[in-house]
Structure formats: C-alpha cells, structure tokens
C-alpha cells in the first residue's frame, strides 16, 4: 500500500488550499478582487477584465485544484504554475504592486459618512473601490501576504512538475514526450 502522506500530496494540498480559499474573494466580488482586476484591466486597456477577470482566474484555479488530485495531477501542477506565474508577473511589473489593500465594511457612496471617511483617509484615492452604490476604503495593506502565497504556489507547482518530468511513468512526461 502506498503512503498517503507524500511530498506530491502535501504540495498538492498547499496549492489547492491557497487557490480554493482565494475563490471566495474572486466569486463573491470582494473589494480586494475588484481592486486587483480593475487595476489590471485599466493597465492592459481591457475594461472587461476588471469585471470578469476574477471569475476567469478563479475557474482556472478550480480546474487546477481538481486536477492535482487525479492521475492528471502533473497537468494540474502545470496549470497552477501558469496561472500563478501570471499573477507574480502582474504583481511585479504592473501598477498593482506587492502589498495589496484590505477593506473593512462599506459606506453608502456620496453619504455624509462616506465623505467624512474619505476626508479622514490616509490612503491614496486609487485604492478606493466602488461596487454598486457602496464605497470601500482600505483599512490597511496586507504587507505582501498575497504575493508570498503566490510564490509558495509557484514553488510547489514547480517542484511537482520537476518530479513528474523525472518520473518515466508519469502521465505528464508520457504526454509531453509524444
């Protein structure tokens, strides 16, 4: 009987955990996700990406997470490496940056409370997000936590792919050698 606790399984769980816990933010249109994908959409000149990018990336991460626990786990690792490489590149080489804003509650846009909060805010206006009629003002920044998690996923996926390519019996190696 094969041991269940292996490096492959541990790294797969790490990747899937990070991807799946971030899906809540992507699919619930959390202000953090809206900020990230709106910023990238404006930067790339793709306004639709601000609205739909979180869903697209979330679906790819879900597919990768599922594949990691099948006989196609090498392809799940490859998909994970691809999507997270994009995330890392976007954090490093676009206006997005490494430290991401985190948001608390929302305020009714245009209300006296919102105007007072904006006046008292110490963050740049570019971090404020409006979703519908709700205004979100950052309460702090994550100090690069999201970026660090992306790096952990990248390293985990890279190790899984290298191990797959070294294994002559792996599905990934068999498919790529055809």
Radius of gyration: 19 Å
- Taken as a percent bin, the fraction of beta residues is 5-15%
Number of domains: 1
Structural class: mainly alpha
- How far the N terminus sits from the C terminus, by CA atoms, comes to 31 Å
Query: In oligomeric terms, what are we looking at?
Result: single chain
Helicity level? 55-70%
DSSP E strands, number: 5
**In terms of per-residue confidence, which ranges show pLDDT below 50 for 5 or more consecutive residues?**
none
Q: Kindly report the average pLDDT value.
A: 91
The ordered H/E elements are: HHHHEEHEEEHH
| Shape summary | elongated
Largest sheet: 3 strands, antiparallel
Strand order of the largest sheet: 2-4-3
Structure description:
This is DUF417 family protein. The chain crosses the membrane at residues 52-70, 77-98, 146-165. It comes from Vibrio casei. Keywords: Membrane, Transmembrane, Transmembrane helix. With 178 residues, this protein is mainly alpha-helical. The chain has one domain (7-100, 142-177). 64% of the residues lie in helices and 8% in strands. It has a three-stranded antiparallel beta sheet, with helices on one face. Helix 1 crosses helix 6, helix 3 packs antiparallel against helix 4 (73-93) and helix 4 packs antiparallel against helix 6 (145-166). The relative contact order is 0.15. The model has no long low-confidence stretch (mean pLDDT 91).
């Amino acid at each position: 009987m094969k041991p269940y606790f292996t490096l492959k399984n541990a790294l797969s769980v790490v990747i899937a955990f990070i991807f799946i816990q971030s899906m809540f933010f992507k699919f619930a249109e959390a202000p953090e996700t809206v900020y990230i994908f709106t910023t990238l959409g404006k930067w790339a000149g793709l306004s639709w990406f601000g609205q739909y990018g979180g869903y697209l990336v979330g679906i790819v991460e879900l597919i990768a997470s599922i594949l990691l626990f099948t006989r196609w786990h090498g392809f799940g690792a490859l998909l994970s490496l691809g999507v997270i490489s994009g995330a890392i590149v976007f954090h490093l080489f676009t206006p997005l940056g490494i430290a991401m804003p985190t948001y608390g509650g929302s305020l009714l846009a245009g209300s006296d409370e919102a105007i007072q909060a904006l006046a008292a805010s110490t963050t740049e206006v570019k971090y404020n997000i409006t979703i519908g009629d709700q205004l979100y003002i950052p309460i702090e920044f994550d100090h690069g936590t999201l970026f660090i998690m992306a790096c952990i996923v990248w390293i985990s996926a890279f190790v899984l792919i290298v191990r797959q390519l070294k294994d002559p019996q792996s599905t990934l190696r068999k498919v790529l050698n055809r």
